[in-house]
Amino acid sequence: MIRAWAPGRVNLIGDHTDHTGGLVLPMAIDLGTMVSGTRGGDVVELRSPIEPEPAIVPLDLADPAAVSPGWARYVAGVVAELRPTVGFSGSVRTTVPVRAGLSSSAALEVAVALALGFDGRAIDLARLGQRAEHRASGVPCGIMDQLASAGGVVGHALRIDCTSLAVQPVPLPDDLEVVVVDSGQRRELATSAYAERAAACQAAQASIGPLREATLADLDCLTDEVVRRRARHVVTENARVDQLATALTTGDRSSVADAMAASHRSLREDFEVSTQVLDELVDRLTSLDGVIGARLTGAGFGGCTVGLVETGALLPDDLTSWRIVPSAGAHLLDEGEGPQQ
Ligand code: GLA
Question: Which residue among 15, 18, 30, 145 is the active-site one?
Fold first, then answer.
């Protein structure tokens, strides 16, 4: 029996920066996806207790986006990228809430790739998962979700430079905890809105070069007001990733709070991916005792917020929240072994 585990991820800061080679600070979380089963045959067949229909994917399939049901497309994307020579039969179980912005699809892609026999570096596993996601969903996502899932480090966030793909683990201080709160709003229109935002960033790069190297002064050359605001989010957000990574290392709580507040504001006003529900939740969280900072996390348009709180701080009972343990990246499990957290 093969058992492959891949975690979801939460991003502390650095949203909508990965698709222009920017900086991000995600971590692998202790919610994840397990693919268990045996190799054999010439299809990949997986069942999931939360899906009415199984994923049945022939090894020689042509177009992952044409597969149904919808969740099987992610399995098909991995099959199309990995092209295993032997099939697989088994089950998928996940503790990552689906469509909540915690990368349930990346966890599925990465776990399926390991179960089907991918053997190599975390970065190559992440690239394969990213290509599978492009093929399955058509969303032109960056590398953050798959790389956080494949390359997580226990007790650490990961500062990822999405140009060089260098990963630098940043330890989380003992006196802070990461709390994710579900807004309850499921992501809507995320595919087209994400692609539109990514296209605006590409338009900015076509006139002023890589946003990763741009300064605020460079943005004055952008004549389209919307493109300029999108680009301003990216340029300022890249700087905030290093601000937060440094503030975590030096224990500067007011800088942690400032970076997170400015990130949420920029995602709301310049990148326009927040919602009223997310804004109200962030306001409520930041007014609570023991909450240092909070912001929306991931693509936006609903989903979750991430907060840094004093260890042991209590949140109101009416919130659906998880205290996150920064966890190891995807791996195969031995008989009787649990995931590394
Ligand atoms: C989604 C994408 C990522 C990243 C985030 C926003 O999760 O899959 O690549 O762009 O949105 O930071």
Answer: 145
